[in-house]
Design brief:
It is a single chain. Helix content is about 30%, strand content about 15%. Helix 1 packs parallel to helix 2 and helix 3 packs parallel to helix 5. The chain has one domain: Aldolase class I (TIM Barrel). The longest helix is centred in the middle third of the chain and has 20 residues. The relative contact order is 0.14. By secondary structure, the protein is of the alpha/beta class. The structure holds flavin mononucleotide (FMN). One of its GO terms (cellular component) is cytosol. InterPro entries: Aldolase_TIM, OxRdtase_FMN_N, Oye-like. Its cofactor is FMN. It comes from Mucilaginibacter celer.
């Protein structure tokens, strides 16, 4: 349905999926899989179900294998128990009328030996990404990793494929490849962390190869129209040396051009958190999302710091097809209804983003649109 006042509230056909609005819940690590098996919990089902009025939910980044780990209490999607845990979540979201994609991730060299019984994590090259890893003992500096063998790269690609199959078995509506800064994929793209001399290093084509090999493996189990990728070519926080370089723009142009042939669900693009002036990607500063429209013909989900107003505006301008909201969804489980009825927004507390419990997770109340508190209306006659 067309809503000229608020395009965010329009229905949107995503291939054969029908989104009830154009509001996407962005993937957010919340560290609530507080058990040794990293199994998604009933508390997580409650959290996601509370947010099911989003047109689409994308889960927190989820480990594709035991080798992919590098942050405490983040769930995996590689064991039968984990699949069973996710089933509870997809069922709860579907019962509340929502749709949900699983975000598949691998942290590569930005992990820590504390997660591997003292063994080093592996990455594209034996180069310390110089970032911080959230271990069970708190944040620790990353170390120089082992370099992936070719066999390990091939195995990692298979791990993504198996995780994608597991997501299907768990009842997800699609999957998103987590290629946001700091993760394994950008470590391959970056000149700073990838100095390989084989077919996965050197040229732009070689460094980007892993994205397409992962994608090709995943679309053996999912229709490409149910697969997305989230990435950003620009600066982001706590990602160490994986920052834009002089080949970032041509790299992304190459990737976008090639992705045109894939008929993906969408590309999920995060914007710049900082002023890009003086960086190798300064050319993206103005009208950031239009650059992607120019090089990519498929659907775009725009992300980073959007508000109700700026989200409606960019949709009206046709520069994106859907908008994802991260932090606003933490304290506003009923974000869509708040947009609809112009209700005030609550502030989230960053101190409880990863604290592993109910507090700061499922205890943010809705604004009461559903009868618990009356929808704002004409003042009652006295
Ligand atoms: C607590 C928290 C955890 C996040 N975890 C992930 C994640 O697992 N995967 C991912 O792609 N992005 C992650 N992000 C980034 C968000 O998806 C989003 O890009 C970012 O919050 C900017 O959108 P916003 O300004 O609407 O919050 C996280 C953000 C926050 C605040």
């Amino acid at each position: 349905m067309k809503n000229t006042a608020q395009p965010l509230l329009e229905e949107y056909p995503l291939g054969d999926l029908k989104l009830k609005n154009r509001v996407v819940m962005a993937p957010m690590t919340r560290g609530r899989a507080t058990n040794a098996g990293l199994v998604p919990t009933p508390l997580m089902a409650e959290y996601y179900a509370q947010r099911a009025s989003a047109g689409l939910i994308i889960t927190e980044g989820t480990w594709v294998s035991s080798k992919a780990i590098g942050f405490i209490n983040v769930p995996g999607i590689y064991t039968q128990n984990q699949i069973a845990g996710w089933k509870l979540i997809t069922k709860a979201v579907h019962e509340h009328g929502g749709l949900i994609f699983s975000q598949l991730g691998h942290i590569g060299s930005a992990s820590h030996p504390d997660f591997f019984g003292g063994e080093l994590p592996a990455g594209p090259s034996a180069i310390n990404p110089q970032s911080q890893c959230y271990t069970p003992e708190g944040f620790k500096a990353t170390l120089t990793p082992r370099e992936f063998t070719i066999a390990e790269i091939k195995q990692t690609i298979q791990d993504y494929k198996q995780a994608a199959q597991n997501a299907k078995d768990a009842g997800f509506d699609g999957v998103e490849i987590h290629a946001q800064a700091g993760m394994l994929i950008p470590q391959f793209l970056s000149l700073a962390t990838n100095q390989r001399r084989d077919e996965y290093g050197g040229s732009i084509e070689n460094r980007a190869r892993i994205i397409f090999e992962i994608l090709d493996a995943i679309i053996e189990v999912w229709d490409s129209a149910r697969v997305s990728i989230k990435f950003t070519p620009v600066l982001y926080t706590h990602v160490g040396i994986v920052t834009p370089d002089e080949e970032t723009i041509p790299m992304f142009q190459y990737i976008l051009k090639k992705l045109n042939d894939y008929n993906l669900a969408f590309l999920h693009i995060t914007g710049p958190a900082q002023d890009l002036t003086g960086t190798p990607v300064a050319a993206l500063q103005d009208d950031y999302f239009s650059h992607f429209r120019h090089h990519y013909s498929g659907r775009l989900v725009a992300n980073l710091g959007f508000t109700q107003q700026s989200g409606n505006m960019i949709l009206k301008d046709g520069k994106a097809d859907l908008i994802s909201f991260g932090q606003l969804f933490i304290a506003n489980p009923d974000l869509v209804e708040r947009f609809k009825y112009q209700l005030p927004l609550s502030e989230s507390n960053p101190d409880t983003y990863y604290t592993g419990e109910e507090k700061g997770y499922t205890d943010y109340p809705g604004a009461g649109y559903n009868g618990a508190i009356a929808i704002p209306h004409e003042a009652d006659p006295e």
